[in-house]
UniProtKB/TrEMBL annotation:
PANTHER family: TRNA 2-(METHYLSULFANYL)-N(6)-ISOPENTENYLADENOSINE(37) HYDROXYLASE, TRNA-(MS[2]IO[6]A)-HYDROXYLASE. It comes from the Bacteria. GO terms for biological process: tRNA modification. This is tRNA-(Ms[2]io[6]A)-hydroxylase. One of its GO terms (molecular function) is tRNA 2-(methylsulfanyl)-N(6)-isopentenyladenosine(37) hydroxylase activity.
Amino acid sequence: MTSALDAIHEFLPCRTPARWIENALANQDLMLIDHAHCEKKAASTALSLMYRYVDNTDLLNKMSRLAREELRHFEQVLAIMKKRGVAYDHLTPARYASGLRQEVRAEDPGRLVDVLIVGAIIEARSCERFAALAPHLDEKLADFYNSLLKSEARHYQDYLALAEKAAGESINDRLATFLEIERALIEEPDTEFRFHSGPVPG
C-alpha cells in the first residue's frame, strides 16, 4: 500500500493540513456522519454516470463495481456509528465537491472528462485523509480506515484511466486546472468541519 500512497501524495497538490487533522480528532462523531454521506454520494455519482453513458462498457463495469464498494463502505460506517451511539443525520455539504464541479464543462466529451477527473481527485484525497488520520485514531477505527486505502486508491486510478480514454488525448492541462482549485479548497480556512473541508481555525 506504501507505493499506492506514494503515488497519491505525488498526484495531489498538497498534504492535508495538520489543523484539519486536529479538527477531525476533536469532531469524530461529525467526521463519521459526513464520511457516511461521502460514501453514499460516491455511489450515487457512479450510478449517475452509468445512467448517462450507457454505451461506454468500460465505464459501466468500473462504475458498477465502484458503486457496490462505496455502498458497502456506507454500510460499514453506519455500523461503526451505531456501535458508538452516533445518529446518522442530514449535514450541509462541504464546499469541496461543488467547488471542484464549478469548473466542469457543460458539453460532452469535455463534461465526462471533467467529471471523471473530479472523481479521481476526490477519491485520491479521501485515501490521503484516511492514511493521515489512521495513526491518531482508536484501534478499531484506524483498522477500518486502513482497510479502505486499497479500494480508494484503485477508484482514483479507475477514474483517471476513464478520463484519459474519454479525452482521447492528454488530460494534463485539465488535471492541472482542477488540482489548483483543489489545493485552495484544502488549504484555505473553512467555517465548518467536514471530511473534505479545509482547516477550521481555532
